[in-house]
Amino acid sequence: MAALERKLEDEPFVAIGVHSPKFPNERDPDRVRDAVRRYGVTHPVVVDSGMQIWQQFGVRAWPTLAVIDPTGRLAAAGSGEPDADSLEAVVRRLIEQGREQGTIAPRELPLRQEPWPAGTLAYPGKVIADGERIVVADTAHDQLTVFGHDGVERRRIGAGDGGFADGDVAGARFHHPNGLAADGDVLWVADSGNHAIRRVDLAAGHVTTVAGNGEKGGGSAGGDGLTTALRSPWDLALDGSRLYVAMAGAHQIWLYDTTTGHIGPFAGAGPETVRDGPADQACFAQPSGIALGPDGRLYIADSEASTIRLLEDLDGSPRARTVCGSGDLFGFGLRDGAGPDALLQHPIGIAAAPDGLLYVADTYNHAIRRVDPRTGECVTLFGNGEPERLAELFPGAPLSPAGPDTPCLFEPEGVWVAGDDLLVADTNNHRLLRIELASGRRTAL
Q1: Please, which residues have CB within 8 angstroms of residue 103's CB and are 6 or more apart in sequence?
Q2: Which of 28, 131, 243, 352 satisfies CB 3.0 to 4.6 Å to 291 for a cystine?
Q3: Which strand (E) or helix (H) includes residue 168?
Q4: Which of 195, 193, 177 is nearest to 139 (CA)?
């Protein structure tokens, strides 16, 4: 849609987003405002919290697009992502008809851009760390930010103006980078907005693209990384020469071979639903977080299903299995328990600790959950389901300890286990937190 808006910027055309929420957390206009700001949406967005517009247009799926002609009549409609060329042709034809019929009266609309967040980070996504550094996907700044463990910023990777270009770390361009993996001085980046996998050599100071061509792909059997179109890669997990990719847009897990440069589907049949079983028959729903456990399994935050999944027997006959969560696209909430009795709400981040426990950024619950994959038990550690809005806090005020009974986060998307602490990307508060697991003591880095 953004491309069409740019093409028709001098024409009497306007796109209007209608946000009809699935999750309770999405009904708050402030959440929509954050999403508009984060993704650079330049057209007006209506918050259809009561699903009234959805019902009036007979919508049955996300996304659905409707084209209204200059007289206010419905000219075309359809679900799913439209073909860009066909959509442009329809709109241009309606504009021409409107001119011929005299039904178009162009005038400026009183629109304004949402203000940009101030500070070091803007909607940080994933976070990883080693003994030398902490790396944060500074998503809305279109950069990676490198910190020392003392919280001092050491380096920025990417020009920060959005785009798709390789080169030295200061001039390379990313677009909404998210997932990260590291092997010494080499970073692997899921460049979600560019539908690409990037390789950053910190020692050489250079960025290269290893998979994806910048275009959003559809179904693909895979192939050479640079000639295969990807679809919204969101997170990464590295195991030797095998780089697992949470391909959120394709509802699959892909595998990139860092030695041969081949990439292709590893698990997931493609439909957006929940189904356990052999990898090629299993189904996922917008997997957005992955982590390799010390048991050799790949753990998955299956976001749209609000469920934690796993892939086992990765070297043999991989199979998918549900660890906890309802396993239903419309089964979500905030409830501790084991297996299907536990409820989550659109978790995006997941990390595996050396003892085998999982820590989950339960994003729409504004919480951190702990999951024992051996029993399926899910326990809330920090956050009570309500957001802590940083703008409402007194600047410079000390942070109260985190716990399960008070707000302490605002849509966290990244989590990493660092010894006895958690590093948490407190996404909508534009900050990185260190939380001591034992005491809940919080420090903003």
Answers
A1: 69, 70, 71
A2: 352
A3: strand 167-168
A4: 177
Percent helix / strand / coil, the chain, rounded to 5: 15, 35, 45
Q: Token pair for residue 66?
A: 């409707």
The mean per-residue pLDDT over the stretch 408-437 comes to 97
CA distance 43 to 58: 23
Residue 124 token pair: 């940080």
Instruction: Write out the two tokens for 401.
Output: 């300890």
Residues 6+ positions from 76 with CB-CB distance below 8 Å:
66, 67, 90
Which residue has tokens 């206009």? Answer: 29
Beta bridge partners of 79: 64
The arrangement of strands across the sheet holding 431-436 comes to: 414-418, 421-426, 431-436, 442-444
Sheet holding 307-312, edge to edge: 277-278, 319-324, 307-312, 298-302, 287-292
226-233: long-range contacts, CB 8 A cutoff, minimum separation 24 = 226/261, 228/263, 228/264, 229/195, 230/195, 230/196, 230/197, 230/254, 230/263, 231/195, 232/192, 232/195, 233/178, 233/179, 233/190, 233/191, 233/192, 233/195, 233/196, 233/197
* pLDDT score of 396: 64
Place of tokens 């990807």: 230
Instruction: Give this prediction's pTM.
Output: 0.87
